[in-house]
Each structure stands twice: as C-alpha cells, then as structure tokens.
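Take our chain:
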Amino acid sequence: MVTIYEPDQSHLSLGVLVGISGSALLFLILFIVFSWMYQDKLRREELELIEFYPGGLYNYQKIKAATNNFHDGRRLGEGGFGTVYEGTLLDGTAIAVKKLSTTKEGMNEFVEKSRTIAGMKHPNLVTLMGCCAGKNQLLLVYEYIGTKSLEDALFGSDELIRARLDWPTRYRICLGLAEGLTFLHEGSKLEIIHGNIKPANILLDNDLNPKIYDFGFAKLYHKQKSEGTMSYSAPEVKDRALEASADVYSFGVVMLILVSGMKIKTPRAGGDTEYLVDEVSETRLTAIVMYINLGN
C-alpha cells in the first residue's frame, strides 16, 4: 500500500508569511531611511543657515515664526528687489526681514556679500544681523528701525511725523547721511559703494536719526535698477562701473529733496513728467527758493 503525505499547509503558509513580513519590514526601513535623507537634503537645500557671528543663530523656521509665516499684516514695504516684513524673535528682538528671489548664480554672490557686511556697526547704518539662503530664495535679517523711511516722512500721510521735520532736524538728517556714507566709503576696510541712495533707503528711528539701509549689494542691483531709482543717479552711471562719486551725486539729490520738500518728479499735463534735478540744472532755482520761503 502506498501512502501519500500531503504537504504541511500550515508550515508552508507560515514560512511564506515570515518571508513576506521580513521583506516588507526591510522595505519599510529602507523607505523611512531614504525619505529622511531626502527630506533632510531638501531642508538643507531649501534654506541653509548662514551663521555670521557667534550667537547669531537665525534659521528659516525661527524667521518664519517671527513673521507669522510672512503674513501680509507684517509687511513693511515692497520694492523691485524684494518684500520686507516685520518680525519678533522668541527673545523679543525686533527684526526686519527682506525676502528676495534670485537665481542660483546670484544666490552665491548675495551670500558672499552678506558674509562681508554682516554685523557692520555705525550709528547711521542699519545693521545686517544674519542671512538664510537656498533654492532661489534669500532672507536678509536686519535690525528693526521703528519709524518710517525718509520718503514716508516727507510725502506720506502721517502729518505728525512731517511736522517734526523742522530745519534743525533736516540738517541733522543730512549730516547723519553724510557720516554714514563717509563710513561706507572710507571708514570701513571694505570701501562699500551703496549705489542706490534715495529717500526710501534712508530709515528714521524714533528720534528721526537717519540710518542708511540696503547697502553692500550695489553691483548685484546695478543692472536691475528701475526708472524711479535711476532718477537719483548721475546720467553717466548707467553705462560705467559704480564709483563713490555716484553716491555723492545721489546724496546731493536727496539733500535737494529734503531741503525743498519737493518730489524727485512731478506729473504734468499732457502726460509729461518734470524732474526736480532738471529744474535745478536749468537754473530755475528761484521758484524752488520761493517754495521753501513760503513754508512748504
């Protein structure tokens, strides 16, 4: 008699189950490891922390929290090169964050330039505190200056701050601006040319002391200047390398605006635009002097 033994189905099923479970577990472990590595790589690429000086730790999550995820209510202003947000760090430090978009090539230049000027101190300069960079985005972290720009003070809707701009204050603003520029050109080892001096880049603190903002990136901004910015520049600057004399010219234009209280350009009938500098160049100073003497 021939006896036929059936395979042990329970034993076979258990072996298959153990094999499948082991493979699945191995796959899960590998998936978790590679996912973690990929996410870590993305985090580092997305926004790599650049630490400029001991204790100056600024990472993306902290800046994001400080600005309430770059909420519109925290927006201080917007220009051709980026948007500025107000923020508060966990330790209570008030900051202003400039959020820029740039190419990968431009990113390297911005980071290197940021390294050189971070922490530079002068009473008439806005201090760059730190920087985060990565994936076509750059965040510049500045000290927060509480009041307004010179442009806002002169031509904004706040009558109270404009009333504080008496002649001694305007003289002090001119003097502070001159001292800040002198430090950039001669007082620091870097010999920095601002290249974009205008009322919007001169911030006023609570005592209306001037602080020059957005310095150190002249060569990176130079080719991207808007028509409005070029109104403060000498005509020959457009076609040649930046020099300190370019800042001196712009300083003169700002002084003219500050003393006269007149805007850099005024729309006229027929779609024409009248430029303040042209009026001076054409020796039409009498009208400006009368404008000042009338208390404007």
Summary: The chain has two domains: 47-144, 147-296. The first strand starts at residue 48 and ends at 50. The radius of gyration is 29 Å. The chain has eleven helices and eleven strands.
